[in-house]
């Protein structure tokens, strides 16, 4: 029983063992009541997400249909409905929703509110993969000496942080080839200078300026990102929900 309502959990549930241990390990009714908040989190990811958002000091609001919104300067800003299955996927992958909350907080800090829908289209196209800091990962083709293919000068070596004034990045998504620090989904790499090195880049949602409308939302422009490392096979991350240095 949780909150006066009977709950059934099958043995196939991802968290069955932990839920069962909490119930069976409650020697008294008081201990069982104390364990109910954790049991609720294990049963319903949205409960955990709400708690984490509260601990992070976020003005994050989530209804029972996983519709997410923020309060920014007194105004409500919605996040695309497509985030719900991603929340569930992260819960099933490892149960760590802190990176998702950090991602959402950074997303709402983006001064271009239209980017939320553009960016989520990109993330769905390339496969959601977040970092512990709430950034997302994307790819970039570079020359064999790690310089930019565009100018053969800009260094894209692992560990490098690249940045430029946001005002100098093209914000119009209908202008597909223009100024900015470019990142891409794996599916786009074959269209731009294939056969060279590919690097993994970490991008904060607040630093994304636009996601061009061509190539089905598979590339984007930012004003800042970090080169994580070279990758020989970018598709290795397609089923990873949370990126750590072990990957």
Structural class: alpha+beta
Q: Which whole number gives the mean pLDDT?
A: 76
- Quickly count the helices: 6
The separation of the N and C termini measures 40 Å
The run of helices and strands is HHHEEEHHHEEEEEEEEE
Strand content: 15-25%
* pLDDT < 50 runs, ≥5 residues: none
Oligomer classification: single chain
The general outline is elongated
The counted number of beta strands is: 12
Helix content: 25-40%
| Major β-sheet strand ordering | 5-8-11-6
Integer-rounded radius of gyration: 21 Å
Describe the main β-sheet briefly: 4 strands, antiparallel
Characterise the protein shown here:
By secondary structure, the protein is α+β, with helices and mostly antiparallel strands. The protein contains six helices and twelve strands. Helix 1 (16-24) runs antiparallel to helix 2 (29-43) and helix 2 (29-43) crosses helix 3 (45-55). The longest helix has 15 residues, at 29-43. The protein is elongated and about 70 Å long. The mean pLDDT is 76.
Give keywords.
single chain, about 250 residues, alpha+beta, three-stranded antiparallel sheet, about 20% strand
Question: What topology does this entry show?
Answer:
Layout: H1 16-24, H2 29-43, H3 45-55, E1 60-62, E2 68-72, E3 75-78, H4 83-93, H5 98-108, H6 115-126, E4 130-131, E5 136-142, E6 161-163, E7 181-184, E8 197-203, E9 208-210, E10 219-222, E11 224-230, E12 242-243
Parallel strand pairs: 4-12
Antiparallel strand pairs: 1-2, 2-3, 5-8, 6-11, 7-10, 8-11, 9-10
Helix pairs in contact: 1-2, 2-3
């Amino acid at each position: 029983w949780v909150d006066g309502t009977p709950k059934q959990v099958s043995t196939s549930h991802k968290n069955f063992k932990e839920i069962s241990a909490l119930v069976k390990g409650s020697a008294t009714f008081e201990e069982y009541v104390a364990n109910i908040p954790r049991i609720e989190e294990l049963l319903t990811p949205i409960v955990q997400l709400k708690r984490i958002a509260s601990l992070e000091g976020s003005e994050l609001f989530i209804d029972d249909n996983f519709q997410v919104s923020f309060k920014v300067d007194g105004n409500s800003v919605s996040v695309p409905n497509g985030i719900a299955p991603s929340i569930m996927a992260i819960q099933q992958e490892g149960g760590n929703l802190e990176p998702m909350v950090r991602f959402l907080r950074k997303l709402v800090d983006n001064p271009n509110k239209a980017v939320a829908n553009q960016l989520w289209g990109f993330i769905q196209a390339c496969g959601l993969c977040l970092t512990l800091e709430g950034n997302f990962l994307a790819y970039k083709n570079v020359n064999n000496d790690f310089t930019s293919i565009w100018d053969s000068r800009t260094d894209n070596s692992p560990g490098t942080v690249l940045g430029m004034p946001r005002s100098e990045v093209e914000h119009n998504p209908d202008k597909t080839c223009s100024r900015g620090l470019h990142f891409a989904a794996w599916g786009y790499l074959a269209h731009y200078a294939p056969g060279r090195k590919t690097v993994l880049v970490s991008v904060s949602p607040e630093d994304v300026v636009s996601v061009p409308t061509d190539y089905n939302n598979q590339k984007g422009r930012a004003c800042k990102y970090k080169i994580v490392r070279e990758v020989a096979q970018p598709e290795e991350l397609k089923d990873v929900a949370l990126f750590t240095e072990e990957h």
